[in-house]
Every structure is written in C-alpha cells, then in structure tokens.
Amino acid sequence: MSRAIAGPEIEKLIQLLARLPGLGPRSARRAALYLIKRKDQLLVPLAGALQLAAERILVCSACGNIDTADPCAICTDPRRDASVICVVEDVADLWALERANAINARYHVLGGVLSPLDGTGPDDLNLAGLIERARAEDVREVLLAVNATVEGQTTAHYITDLLAGAGVSVSRLAHGVPVGGELDYLDDGTLAAAVKSRTPF
C-alpha cells in the first residue's frame, strides 16, 4: 500500500484529476502541483468556474447538447436550417463540427454508439427523440455524422432502418473522414469537406 504524499485534500484533488481522460496518477500529481503553485492565478478561478458549471450546465431536452439553457442556443437559433438534423455520437463531435463552421443545421446527440461488447444497446442511446424529430413536418434530411468506426457504421445502419418510411433523406459524411477516425481529432478543413461531400446512405 502506497503512503500518502500530502494531506487528504491534496490527495483527493490528485485522485479526481487522475479520473480525467489522458491523466494517470503521475500526470495528475504534476497537474495538482501546478495548480497549487499557481493558487491565486489558476486554482481559485478554476474552482469557481467548476462550481458555476456544476450549478448552471444543463442537457438540452431537444437535442442532447450541453448549455446553460434548455433548449440550447443551437436549437433556439432561428438562423439554423431546421430542415436538416445532423446526428453525432457525442457533444465533442458537435463542438468539432461547430469549430469547423461546417454546417448550419440543428443537431442530435446520440450519447454513444451501439456496442454489444460494451453493453450499449438501442435503449441506451437517444434514438426515440431522433425518430420523433425526424418525423416533424419541416425536416427533410438526417445527416449521420458518426465516427467511421465499426460501431459508428453499425449505428448508422440501425438509424437508417429506423428512419425508413419517415419521409426524410438519410445521408452520411463523405469518406474524407478516415476509417477509424474520430471527428474531434480531425482538422477543420477535412470536416468541412466531408460535410459538403456527403453522400446518400
């Protein structure tokens, strides 16, 4: 059993930081030390920002995006093309498409992909809301902007089957998105080109 290297408050900070993606125990210790050394410039403002975020951030009941309002700013923006719903796996993918300024549509966040190995089935995804939104009178296209992974493509095929007879066209990103690639890691140009070159699914 390893000995504690600091007081319980610091140990708790390190343990919580170690839960973040890309940070193990050693990186978490370095990050905690960095924050503590810059207490007034970084640690205190970060703690305040985290507290404010915890109090105010909501999940949009319409699309699944995160914002401080429900419905979110994207869903309520009248300049958005309400006839196109861009379906993404996660909020990070939505943010990636927005950074690239690739599409001026409404979004729908699935909250993951179908993955029997991970125990993720249709009931675990935000599919019912998508089907309901796709059947709305003004929607004419559903763009499946899922990652080019086996699970992503399986999910895309499943959604296509669900939307059969809904009276909407279903498209997907062009193959400019590499197989196995994830949207959040692609450059803005690749994302924009993939959206513009989308093909029927």
Short précis:
The protein has 201 residues and is α/β, with parallel strands linked by helices. The protein has helices at residues 8-18, 25-37, 39-56, 73-76, 91-99, 127-134, 150-162, 188-196, and strands at 58-59, 66-67, 81-88, 105-109, 141-144, 169-172, 199-200.
Describe the structure.
The protein is of the alpha/beta class and 201 residues long. It folds into 2 domains: 49 residues, Orthogonal Bundle (Helicase, Ruva Protein, domain 3), CATH 1.10.8; 135 residues, Dna Topoisomerase Vi A Subunit, Chain: A, domain 2 (3-Layer(aba) Sandwich). It is 42% helix and 13% strand. The protein is built from 8 helices and 7 strands, in the order αααββαβαβαβαβαβ. The strands form 2 sheets. It has a 5-stranded mixed β-sheet. Strands 1-2 form a two-stranded antiparallel sheet. Strand 3, helix 5 and strand 4 form a beta-alpha-beta unit. Helix 1 crosses helix 2. The termini are far apart.
Structural class, judged by helices and strands? alpha/beta
CATH class of the largest domain: Alpha Beta
- The multimeric state of the shown protein is single chain
* Count of discrete domains: 2
Main sheet strand line-up: 4-3-5-6-7
Give the topology.
Elements: H1 8-18, H2 25-37, H3 39-56, E1 58-59, E2 66-67, H4 73-76, E3 81-88, H5 91-99, E4 105-109, H6 127-134, E5 141-144, H7 150-162, E6 169-172, H8 188-196, E7 199-200
Parallel strand pairs: 3-4, 3-5, 5-6
Antiparallel strand pairs: 1-2, 6-7
Helix pairs in contact: 1-2
Keywords:
42% helix; alpha/beta; 8 helices; two-stranded antiparallel ribbon; Dna Topoisomerase Vi A Subunit, Chain: A, domain 2; 201 residues; Helicase, Ruva Protein, domain 3; 2 domains; elongated
